Amino acid sequence: MNRPLSAPTLIRSVDHVTDWVFDLDNTLYPARCNLFSQVDRRIGLFIEQLLGLEQVAARDLQKKYFREHGTSLRGLMTHHNVDPHAFLHFVHEIDVTPVPPSPALEAALAALPGRKFIFTNGSVAHAERVMTRLGVGHHFEGVFDIVAADFQPKPEPATYHSLIARHGINPARAAMIEDLPRNLRPAAALGMTTVLVLTGEEWAMSEDAGDHIHHVTDDLVGWLSEHAPPVQGPGRSDR
Fold first, then answer.
1. Contact 103/221 with Cβ under 8 angstroms?
2. Burial letters 84-101, b for 16+ CB under 10 A, else e
3. Which CATH architecture has domain 35-91?
4. What residue segments make up the domains of the chain, in order of their start?
5. What predicted TM-score, i.e. pTM, was given to this entire model?
6. Neighbours of 151 (CB within 10 A)
7. Distance between CA atoms of 22 and 180, rounded to whole angstroms?
8. What topology does CATH give the domain 19-29+99-227?
9. Residues 16-71 pLDDT 10s
């Protein structure tokens, strides 16, 4: 179901879209699976152990770096010379079983013509584990993760340029689907059609909506099913 934000959205057709760029966490699976709370706690624990801080102080620093650098990792790399690979391995040691298999998402992606990619501030390993749980990994041609982005997180504009260069994406014929409004702003500036997935998380919806949001939904599967073209019968193939 599409739902208006505080600012009106610009409804734009997706008939022209040939490349679909999906965020992973709280987008490809419902936020109610609450995986990020596990990652969030692991980030705090990493900082506690790294700097010898109490839990409250570590959490305050974690959120400060997130606000100032886009990810806590980037702040830790900048200020504490943290090995990003060790960090990613530690924080993604989580239980992904709260994510259930999703035959409905699998069918919706199968009906959606064009190439599909994951664009995440997490790691390839984390993305692959989540996609395996969902049963949708075979639909995606690639995962552009924080390592591929040279640890420059969304919404850093240079990272979007790296994504489109690596995969030969024409932004004018691409759509990006995300749960954070700020991460859609650079995509819209490049000419992508943008889709915001509502999660009900206060920290996500406190961000500026703005006119860079073209579609809004609280049901990704329903939105994909609604916007996929009708099946033409045997022999139809992705354009």
1. no
2. beebbeebbebebeebee
3. Orthogonal Bundle (1.10)
4. 19-29+99-227, 35-91
5. 0.87
6. 21
7. 12
8. Rossmann fold (3.40.50)
9. 999 999 999 999 999 999 998 999 999 999 999 999 999 999 999 999 999 898 89
